[in-house]
Amino acid sequence: MKRSDLQQKARQYINGRWQSGVTSGLSENPSDTREVVTEYARADRSQAELAIRAAADAFPHWSQSTPQRRADVLDQIGSEILARREELGLLLAREEGKTLPEAVGEAARAGQIFKFFAGEALRVSGSQVLASVRADVQVDVTREPLGVVGLITPWNFPLAIPAWKIAPALAHGNSVVFKPSELVSACGWALAEIISRAALPAGTFNLVMGSGREVGQALVDSPLVDAISFTGSVATGELVLQGAARRRAKVQLEMSGKNPLLVLADADLARAVDCAVQGAYFSTGQRCTASSRLIVEAPVHDAFVAQLRQRLASLKVGHALERGTDIGPVVDRVQLARNLAAVASAREEGAEHVCGGEALQRATVGHYMSPALFLARPEQRIAREEIFGPVACVLRADDYAHALQIANDTPFGLCAGICTTSLARAMHFKRHAKVGMTMVNLPTAGVDYHVPFGGRKASSYGPREQGRHAAEFYTSVKTGYVHA
Ligand code: NAP
C-alpha cells in the first residue's frame, strides 16, 4: 500500500468490484496540509443504493454460510491487519493525526477485534431449549442474522470503530454496507481492501465513501437496510434515529460524552494527574470517552491543578509521525476553529484560564493547538458541552457526595472515572455513576475490546457494542414451539 497505490485505488467496493465514484474528494494530512493522503471516490445516493441492493442480494448466501467459514474469513482479515499494523498505523497517523504509537496500537486493536469475532462466529450464543408450560411441547430460542446492516462511522477511530461494527455484523451472518467519515476515506478504503481479499461472496461487504448527508442518509432511508449502527455526534445521531424509526429499522447509536474523572482527597495524586493527562489530552482529546471534566475534592484541588499544569507544559505538540510527539494535530481546520471558539467562549463566560488553548505554528503547516485547562463551575458551557479537542476543566467539589452529584449532572452518560485509595468509595461510585462504563484509578479513555462498550442517557441508544453483547444488535431472536 504505497502512497501512489492509494491515490489510484481509493475506490468504492460494490458487489465484489472496485468502482469509481460519481465525483472524487481529497483527504489531507492534518500534520502537514500540503500533503494529500488520498484521492478517493465519492458516491451519490444512486451508487449507495447499488451497494445496498448488492448486500440484499448477497444476504441469503452469507446468512447460510457455516460458522467455520465465517470464522475463517474473520480470522484471515484479523491476521492480515495484525501483520500490517505498522503500515496501517502509518496511514492512520497521516490521515487522522493520531501519534504513530497510538495509531499502530489502534490498527492492532482492529486486528484483535476481527480475531475475537472469528471465535464468536463459532459460538453464536443465546440459544436455549426450555420445557414449555404446556405438556408435550418443547420451546427453543435461537438467534438469526438480521439482513443488511448499514454501518456509519466517525473519523476519530478510523480503523477500530469500523472493525467493531463490521466484524460482529459478518460473524453473525449479516451483509454490510460501510460508510466511513469522509475525513478518513483512505483508512476506510485500506480496511475494505483487506476485507475484499477474504473470500466473502460478492456483495456481502460493500464500501461506499461520500457525504453523510447523501450516502449516509441513503442507508438510513433504504427499506432494504434492516439495521443501522451509527457512531458520531448527537446531532447526526438524532437524524439517524428519526429516519430509522420512521421505517422501524433496528438502530444502535454511540454518540458524545462529557466524561467526569473524580479525584478524591485520598488519591495517589501522581496517578490521578497521569489519568487526567492520558484521559483528557491524549489522541488530541478527540475521544468520546475523554475526561473533559476533572472533579477534584477541595483539599487536593490546588496541588492537583499545579501538578497537571506542570505536566501539560512538558507535553510536546507536533507532527504525528515525529518521534517524541505526545499530542498530534487536531483533525481538520473546522474542528480546530471549533476548539478555539470553545476556548474563547470559556474565557467570556468567566472560567479561569490555567494554560493552553492557542493555535501553534510548527515546521509544517498543520492544525496544531496547545492543550487547554480551565477552572470552571458546573453550570458553565465548558463543563457541559462536548468540545472534542484537547480542552478540559477542573471543577472543585466540597466532598465525595458533591463530586458524585456534579459527575451525574450532565445529559451524557458514557464513561466516568474515580481516583481514590478507598475501596468503599470506589465501590459506591461504580454503583452510582449514571454511565455505561466506570474506571477506578484508570483514565476514562482506553477500553478492552472483548467486553461491552457504550453508555446511557444522550450518549448511547440501543444495545451495547463489542464483546459477546454485540449479538444483541446483530441478531434477531426467534422462539420456536414443537409438539412432540
Ligand atoms: P458526525 O459528524 O456525526 O459524523 C459521523 C458519521 O455520520 C460520518 O460518517 C458522517 O459523514 C455521517 N453523517 C453525517 N450526516 C449524516 C446523515 N444526515 N445521515 C447519515 N449519516 C450522516 O461525527 P464525527 O464528527 O465524524 O465524529 C465525532 C463525534 O463522534 C463526537 O461527538 C464523538 O463523541 C462521537 N463519537 C462517539 C463514540 C462512541 O462510541 N460513543 C466514539 C467515537 C466518536 P461525513 O462526515 O463523512 O459527511
Describe the structure.
The chain is α/β, with parallel strands linked by helices. It has 2 domains: about 280 residues, Aldehyde Dehydrogenase, Chain A, domain 1 (3-Layer(aba) Sandwich), CATH 3.40.605; about 190 residues, 3-Layer(aba) Sandwich (Aldehyde Dehydrogenase, Chain A, domain 2). Helices cover about 40% and strands about 25% of the residues. It has 15 helices and 24 strands. The strands form 7 sheets. The protein has a 7-stranded mixed beta sheet, sandwiched between helices. Strands 9-8-7-10-11-23 form a 6-stranded mixed beta sheet, sandwiched between helices. α6 links the parallel β7 and β8. α4 crosses α5. The longest helix is centred in the N-terminal third of the chain and has 23 residues. The chain is globular, with a radius of gyration of 23 Å. The relative contact order is 0.14. The N terminus is likely disordered. Bound molecules: NADP nicotinamide-adenine-dinucleotide phosphate. The site of NADP nicotinamide-adenine-dinucleotide phosphate has 30 residues, from α8 and α9.
Which fold does the CATH topology of the largest domain refer to? Answer: Aldehyde Dehydrogenase, Chain A, domain 1
Shape: globular
Please, what is the average pLDDT?
A: 96
CATH architecture of the largest domain: 3-Layer(aba) Sandwich
The CATH class of the largest domain, by name, is: Alpha Beta
Residues in helix, %: 40-55%
